[in-house]
User: Fold this.
Amino acid sequence: MSGIVDQADIGVVRDGHRFDEARLAAWMVDNVDGYGGALTVRQFKGGQSNPTYHLSAGGCDYVLRRKPPGALLPGAHAIDREARVMMALAGQGFPVPRIHGYCADAAAIGTPFYVMALVEGRIFWDPALPDLPKDERSACFDAMNATLAQLHRIDPDAAGLGDYGRRDGYVARQIARWSRQYREDEAAGRLADMDQLIEWLPAHLPAERPARIIHGDFRIDNMIFHPTEPKILAVLDWELSTLGDPVADFAYHLMMYRLPRHIMSGLAGMDLVTQGLPTEPSYVMAYCRRTGQAALPDLGFHIIFNLFRFAAIVHGIKGRLARGTAASPDAAAMVAILPDLARIAWQYAAMTR
Assistant:
């Protein structure tokens, strides 16, 4: 599938992320139906974790995602899981790009990778949707809400993902995992707010729900919207997906309401109604209606947990920046928000004690 590409979002392949393009072309010939022509490789500006490339050949466009080069933390950059979950969800009618193939052989271009279709549509980087007319914004939010609810209604066994992760203890294991990665990444340093959250979170764990497939990074910029309609054509970036508590996944998405404008263009402090956006309570009610729940009594904990997890991810970017392996030129700007992000998370936790 060919796509509309914003030229401002792609450029030359950055230093440290180049690879043998002839080897990739040979792999494409053997693994991608209909592939042919001279290969052109450019790099997307995004991809904080896994470098992402725009490929063009024979009038067709593709996207390649790979593990970054260099020393990596255990369990991070799960390219194989991204490819597997998207192939499985496509069979359930969920909007994901078509996967052309996955390559586990690092000898091909230096690290494992997969190639998928480039989906035609729009990517919005700001959840306030300033480039859309006000009367179209609410419909886009409703599309996000409906898409996430659709994901959480899918039976993992029916999708062939019953073994995609453990079905119990998701939040507890996530807290342990990100706490460990935070503590082990000495190059990134320590923050007092993060240290306090690491103590607070395990002591306040709520009861968990039956496990569902969760995306793990369901943000507006990880979705491709229809070129003209408030409809989501593809959900991207499944590196953090697994089985777990769906409300934890929804709470991550809901962080956009709790973060200020300087952190991921959050909506906190905005007059949402005037801007044509749904309020947080109405958005939560829509999700509850679509998933058959009356309320989400432990939503506050899950928001704190996700703020912590987000901070831990940014802390990891800080470590990669220090080691010279950060995938994105925007890594330094992302790292700059870390102190405020950790402070906001701890403030919410302190208010619930």
